[in-house]
Structures
1.
Amino acid sequence: MALSFARDIVGAVLLDAETISRRVAELGAEISRDYAGLEPVLVGVLRGTVFFLADLIRQITIPITVDFLAISSYSPNSSTGVVRITKDLDENIEGRHVLIIEDIIDTGLTLRYIVRTLEARRPASLNVCVLLDRPALRLVPIPVRYVGFTIPNQFVVGYGLDLWQKYRNLPYIAIVKREVLDGR
């Protein structure tokens, strides 16, 4: 059921809070096992990944560090085709094991830019963890080591994902009604 402030935009709940929580715990266990003894740097891509990253790091049982990267790839109304870093990492990642944490991958263009940018900084390893994979929109192949959920080609909000910078605070992931998107 949609929270009252989102009732007009939510068509259906795709992933409820319990399902998300269960999968995030599984991802945390996998990451803890795979990176045991390596002390990885988790790089959260702002802003959408904040909820996922916060829950994920509480499930990881090994020492980690966390840093953030912010990317702009869209103007307010449309894709510009230009990707740029608006907030860079604070830590030097050369020789470190880096795990990029992203909320959603669709075309792969922005994530490809992030991967190439970070690869140039010579980390010991570089992998990707995404909460949501929407492969129907993929334009470029991106190797993703950890995937929370594969979703259909639907616009979704909640758990960090937004529409017009709103609805990130929904505790679930919901499909936006088609008529809302058509009226944008």
2.
Amino acid sequence: MRFRAGRKYDFTKSTSLIIDPKFWNKKKGIVKQIADFENKKNLQNDLNALRSTILNKYNEVYQSGGVISSQWIDAAIKQQFNQSENIDFNNFIDYTEFFIKNLNNKVLPNGQTGVKENTLKRYNSILNKVRLFENFKKKRLRIIDIDLKFYKDFKDFLINNQNLNLNTTGRYIVYIKTICLDAKEYGIKINPDIEKKEFRETKEPITFVTLSESEINLIYNFDFTDVPYLDNARDWLILGVWTGARVSDLLQFTETNIEKGYIEYTSQKTNQKIILPVHPQVKEIIHKHNGNFPRATSTQKFNDYIKKVCEKVGITQLVPGSMKINIKPGAKLKVFRKVTGSYRKCDLVSTHICRRSFATNHYGKLPTPVLMAITGHQTEKMFLKYIGKSAKDNAETLNDFWQLQQSKKERKPQLDIIKTGTNDK
């Protein structure tokens, strides 16, 4: 970066940002906006933000009589990009910290800028795991070290040392791969193993519970008037299973979300506008609350109370599932991990049961695109994975449809004479 202000000030400093020369317009000093460079918008946004910051800071310092120097320019650049003197972007931790700090400026494939808070938490979580792994190995990782050997060692560390399951381990692998590929876009050399098919996420079948229509009706018809907080939780649960809304959206519903007999809201996670009709049970609950939704509650209380609701109505049969259990009961610091086994169904109930029950109970009865529009899933693959449907499930659904069509063809019309139409005796 070169900064000039009249004849008095003329400084040139490195931004420490890296780009492949073929993507850089040296004459204009900007990033080439070509399709081959996926991070073109992000990098140019970073440079534009730096330019604005330097100009604004210069005006402030100049007007206040401060000193403009080479060191001042260097400090302004480092402050803008959250850098320190010891940063080396070839180190995995250093680059990941830079990656996370710039996620709020990242331009997403849908054109939006910035990521959700949960995404930031996930990347900070992987950063902590890699730090633990470095301490375990007593070695600082460089991006070029992220190869298939690292893949095997890190996977073993997460499963056997950190007691994580295969799905959580797989998500961490995906995050690491994403960070390395992002570094590649900025011209940092990565190990070719990253792009091999063997460097992929680990998976295992997910077990989850849903409420059948008969169980929903059992909950709906149960009298909770003697326990007001469970009565309120039951009402929210019924609303959830018949709207398919995420709990982050569901518990925010108020009378303002009701428009001409429909529930309308914008999903916090996807920013999608969702409109759905009011189910008869939902209509009765809204009427019960004088045209409004149930009393506001927190996600944690809702999660705890609906377990008690299901226990109260007798949904206590043993079913396969996973529960978070303290795997170090005698230790001062509790460590909770998901453990697969057979548990009472009411104990496995959580806030996710609302959306999954809605999707599962309507799958095969309504067109999948209609369900996806309500649940907010972007692709059919994501939707089917969410409700645990496989290719065999789809084949069985098709077979049932064909059998039904065949039975309709084979069914012969029957005519019964109910009156002769004459007065003959």
3.
Amino acid sequence: MLFATKLPLSSLIEFCRVLRHNLGAGLTLLHVFRQQAERGPRPVRPIADRISQDLEQGESLEVALKREQAAFPHMFVAMATVGEQTGCMPDVFAELEKYFVLQQKLRRQFFSQIAWPLLQFFAAPFVIALMLFVLAIFDSPMTPLGPAYKGVWGAAKFLLHFFGTIAALVAGYYVITHILHRRPTVHALLLRLPVIGPCLSAIALSRFCLALRLTMNTGMPITKALRLSMRATGNDAFAVRAERAMVAVKEGEDLAQALRETRVFPEDFLDILANAEEGGRVPEVMEHQMEHYTEESRRRLSILTHTASGMIWLAVAGTLIFLIFSIFLSIYGPGGVYDRLAR
């Protein structure tokens, strides 16, 4: 969820840049998408061609993009919809370009810091399996991981269990979110986790502030602005609560109080929003809050990167320590090699 993009980020950034520039120059959507179908980034061309055909047949950009949502991140589809319905498409694509450039930078930073520990983490089971294999070849009586992982089959079984556990976790996440349709529950759970939760929350809030600023600047009904802004977060824990907030606003609640009832917004944000409502400065304040949460997401992601890197280092170190003690006990412990020779 945190780094999900379907198109390559470089192509997505270039696509947003072209849309921002050409739409700002007065070209129509149909013209721009036809142009991208012919001269856009190679991964974008077939998608742009299908979208241009939909636009030519009178479909809205929202409908056309939803048909291609397997190719675009949810954030792109949601924000492009906001831009189409508010008439601020050049501004929206400018903000999307900035957002994806930031995401590209953070992704590179994340993988550059975590690449070496991650390589060690996935190399460790192969080193352990090789050790078990060598012990089996020399018919050693040592069993560092216990009798269940002795011999050539024990080495293979260890690799199967290690990577099978990872595959089961990934498959479980897919089943829960896509087949059982419990994505909002999973996203809400992730928001409560230490380190991960604050990072995901900051990213979602920066998107929400951007969308709310754009929608409210157009005079759009507040209920519609709320629905679009909650969807634009790209986080189902927020999006699923849009209806609750809309009902509260319809019943006469202030925007800050309506969002407070969703129980996903932090109190400091709601206090700032309440003050902005009293002064009639919600769009301006949302712009400042967007900048704040964008910077906060950078900081939180840096913390997440260092934490993940540290946990991987600890896992590798713990595995090595466990193996050292297991080998020591296999040789010198009760029932070990020396103990059996002494008998």
4.
Amino acid sequence: MSGIAGRRAAAAAAADSNPAYREKQELIRQAASRVFHQRGFHATKLHDVAAEAGVDRASLYYYVGSKEQLFRDVVGEAVTANIEATERIVNADLPVSEKLIRTIRELMISFEKNYPYLYVFVQEDIGKLQGDTAAQDDWLTTVQGWNTRYFKLMRGFINEGIDNGEFRTSLPAGIVANCIIGMMNSSNMWFQPDGILDADQIAEGMARWLLDGLLNS
């Protein structure tokens, strides 16, 4: 491990007790998210991130090992939080229609809170992100795991709604789940945090629109 890598690892390990480090790390992550969104992952260079964050490139390496790792760290925290929140919703003692409403709201609010880097993640071809082979394989495995967990959660409560008679649909639960996930992810093409409707209002409208077609009334 190089000297700077060692110092970076030590600083990251002690981050919980170092507010200044955490603050600068968050500043860099937010700068990176803006540059990734503007330029795309592949066109972005670390010196672009450093310039956006207002730090020199040498200082940036104290916080960041590579562009790839920066992107993965930023995305990983947000996606993991989304999945865990959805798990809590799915396991709650709620009508299935309420689970659908809360799941859609949770994701749209996360897209707003973590704008724009979650949308960069949705837009990018993860199979083409550069990096060493071992790290790339680990990343692909991680992303596939996230996708599978989220899909199973969504399919699970759609199935629950069909089985208990709350939902009616001629489509299998898996197709319904994929349609909902696809609809949510496609919001990257039009959602703006400062638009005429906020994430909560959009989520409410989406959920009610879906339930109009799913509820067995």
